[in-house]
Specification:
heterodimer, A: alpha+beta, 2 domains, four-stranded antiparallel β-sheet, disordered N terminus, B: about 375 residues, Immunoglobulin-like, globular, TAT_signal (chain B), oxidoreductase (chain B), metal-binding (chain B), copper ion binding (chain B)
Chain lengths: ~400, ~375
Amino acid sequence: MNDIAGPETVVASPRPSAAWPGYAFVLWIALPLFLLGLAATWLVVSDPLRAFNNGAPPVERLTFERRILDNSGIHLFVRAGGSEPLTIAQVQVDDAYWTFTQDPPGDLGRLATAWIHIPFPWTLGEAHEVRVVTKLGTTFDHEIPVAVRTPEAQSGQLVPQAVLGAFVGIVPVAIGLMFYPTLRGVGSQGMSFLLALTIGLLAFLFVDALEDALELAGEAAAAFQGHVMVVLAALVSFLLLWAIGRRRGAPTGLALATYISLGIGLHNLGEGLAIGAAFTAGAAGLGIFLVLGFTLHNITEGIGIAAPLVKEPPPPSAFVWLALLAGAPAILGMWLGSLAYSPQWAALALAVGAGAILQVIVEVGAYLRRLDERWKTASVPVSVIGGLVVGLSLMYATAVLVKV
Amino acid sequence: MRNWLRETVNRRHLLWGSLATASGSLLGGMAATGQSPHAGHGSAPPYEANAAGRHSAHGNMITVGDVGRARNGFDPTALLTDWDTGVTSSLPDGRTLRTFEIIGEDKEIEIAPGVFFPAWTYNGRVPGPNLRVTEGDRVHIVFRNHASHRHSIHFHGIHSARMDGLPGAGEVGAGETFIYEFDAFPFGCHLYHCHSLPLKRHIHKGMYGAFVIDPDPARHPEQAEVARSRLLGTPENREWQEFVMVMNAFDTNFDGENEVYAVNTVAHHYAKHPITVIRGKPVRVYLVNVVEFDPINSLHLHGNFFDYYDHGTTLTPTLRTIDTVMQCQAQRGILEFTYREHETGLYMFHAHQSEFTELGWMGMFNVVEAAA
């Protein structure tokens, strides 16, 4: 293929653009669009797809995006998909038909959403299963693994959420950054080790973020094409940040640390969304043990941010906003996640975070390569391999600690 | 990280209890307001959710809306009593010949408000017509299959192998006709259903119905009085209030489990439209179970007891003074009871498989004084 394509690409030389008159320019935009309209009209009017109609019922899809449990019962936010409008006919809770109201009422068109209100006396701490029966008798199930009152979105809840977000996001990064004076004492070997460790931890976060994003995308309505959206968002975020970061050459020092913070911050935003949503969904499982685990896990992130600063000390204030940039989005994410959450938005946030992390992996790698003379002999320094392994292992080991 | 959360929210996880306590104390300590996520449960319990419906017997545990007669072309309330006794003529030997016409057709029916089921039907209704003959009658059933598949009518009764309604013995291809002929024996409460293959699908798609053979008093001189009360049209029989109840169910998503349970097809119909019973008149229920996928079904009567005639083939009860009876698929029987000594009011009946009850198999008798 390449052999054939090669010569052609060589032959094709850039042609000077002809100066077209204005009407021709408009014409060549309007004509294809006009043809598209014509084709669409013909398709609708003549309905050639009739020949394919084999009597099969239309495809129905229903996605559950939010759930609220309160005094008045169970409330579910659903989104329809599929080939034709969907009609919710009945609702079962735990294999029993239950009265319900739909808001807004009526058929649900493609991607249309509605709240389903069920006056069901749910039992604290026990599991329930909601089943929606459509007009065609198709059923869609939604599991409530642990029924817990949904925390109400009020200022009283925002404070404890912020405290939790700070524990998960800001505190560990700040503690990690406090290793900075110790890091300053390392030699060039140590520097390579530190940067490689940063790459290792970022690689862990990248995989983690992408995995979560893809999984959340799977929960979203099919029309969002979740998996494609995740890959696309990660790619766009990577390219954008890469282009911005390279405006004044490859970033080093404080600039590089800032990008690392940004990447980690975006990742924490996605995590915060998920945690906030889990809170709303009644995930009371966030014990002290788990929160401490998160904190421990994220300390490595602070060390990673500090690594590029070893050779180029920034003003002390920089440490404060670096910690905030990396950690505070966790708080923001928790608030947003508990107030308005849909799997596709959390997936999007995590995908953007994954792209940002990929960008800093590339930039830290480039920095590391410039820093270490030994790359030129084509050998891989032991300190780099050691740093990568330690970085990955540290993240993995602390994850094991909190994995329940 | 998200995965950790999900793992911990699973109810089946033993750690949940301890972690929940931990989180409560953690957040309680952290929050300025000192509120844990569980705070407020004491003041307003979630059980309040069902309070709105407490005035009625079923509360909010019921389907929403109602199935009109117009959509289905049949009304479960009318199905209780609309006997089809066929076209009668006399044979040379003096016996009665009863001829029935049954048409097999595909029809979408509404089995719960707003839920439609692509049924296979006899005469466009589920259950099919309530056939009623007298012991010893000659019976001709002209079955015209206008449906898309091969079908048959397999009667539970005494007949020859040729009339059995199996593939090769009275199974009817689409567009074809077959006449089933047999003498009506034994008397009792029976049923008929399609016996084409696959059997499960042909039954649960809706091809079944009640088939009652009344005892001929002349053949049971020692119990002629009882037999006359069972024989449709006699003065003794008119003293009774008779209802046909075919317990059925529908697997709307074809996963081998039923989404809707009912008596005479429409979920909760008799809960929303109680069956009127005159207090002074005894009640006789011809109960048939055709539920597919579940091994057994049952009927439980509230506030009362009944005598039960299994298969209806005896004139003395096979079970006396019971309030719950169990039937496997195709089992059937006759229930006899009275509200003569009761207050008027609504008396519930339902399957005592609570799951079936909650999925639609529940109804009410509205016991009233006789109209003046």
